[in-house]
Amino acid sequence: MTILDGKETARAVREELKVRAEAFKAAYGKEIGLAVVLIGDDPASRIYVGNKVRACAEVGIRSVLKALPADTSEEEAVRVIEELAADDGVHGILVQLPLPPHLDEKKLLSRIPAEKDVDGFLPENAGALALGAPRTVSCTPKGVMELLRRYDIPVRGRRAVVVGRSAIVGRPMALLLLNADATVTVCHSHTRDLADITREADILVAAVGKPRFVTADMIKDGAVVIDVGINRLDGKLVGDVDYEGAAEKASFLTPVPGGVGPMTIAMLLSNTVEAAERRP
Ligand code: GUN
User: Fold this and answer.
1) Ligand 1, atom nearest to 95 Cα
2) Would you tell me which CATH number, out of the four given (3.30.70.260, 3.40.50.10860, 3.50.50.60, 3.30.310.50), belongs to the domain 28-114?
3) pTM, whole model, 2 decimals?
4) 63-92: per-residue pLDDT in tens?
5) 139-261 has which CATH code?
6) Exposure pattern of 176-202 as b/e (b: 16+ CB <10 Å)?
7) Distance 158 CA to ligand 1 centre (A)
8) CA 167 / ligand 1 centre spacing (Å)
């Protein structure tokens, strides 16, 4: 079994992006800019945002952190996003989710211009992916594809099963695999005989958000197993896959932590560099 080392792969991606960020600066006399809007004080969000800001610094992307209090009004949040939308020094805007409950996620995100939507969350970007002509693609599934590519894992003609159908991970993951000519099945909480389906998978992606949900008996011998989950269990970070069991069956397996997670952040940087190159 080969461990798909997301940490090391993300490092390699960042090195490449650093070169592009330097070339951008040499060409346009300004840095690439990413604005991160964090509203409220969700502890996990603070950690994620801190990681994103640090990763920007590593590749020479200027980050602008707009940290707003939990009781920020919708008008104020809209004003901040519109100001960033109009700022020529800001090439990407990320609004960290989840938002405090009084704020309307769709309404706020819709104020981000599609070309600055580095999360790929807007209908324009999600739709382009669904039509098979992707523009900006959601970071986590894009990171999974990059991991497969860099480990020379073929996708064309293979059976891929995605467990989970979220707008951020499951759906775009299925579409990316489909665009790469896999035969794709999407499973979810209402799927019957789940294990019978997952056992067909040459490539199995677990994005359910339940600790150690995918067990060895659900995996075909020699499958590529991608674990997108990040769950806290008894103070420990565990994925959606029972790692020890899966390691007995899989040919390739992502660890948690150190698998898909670092790739997600690397793809955020990649989306930001691409957005800047398209609209300097
Ligand atoms: N919250 C958890 N994951 C993400 C993500 O990828 N992007 C944003 N904006 N918020 C998140």
Assistant:
1) 9
2) 3.40.50.10860
3) 0.97
4) 999 999 999 999 999 999 999 999 999 999
5) 3.40.50.720
6) bbbbbebebbbbeeebeebeebbbebb
7) 29
8) 11
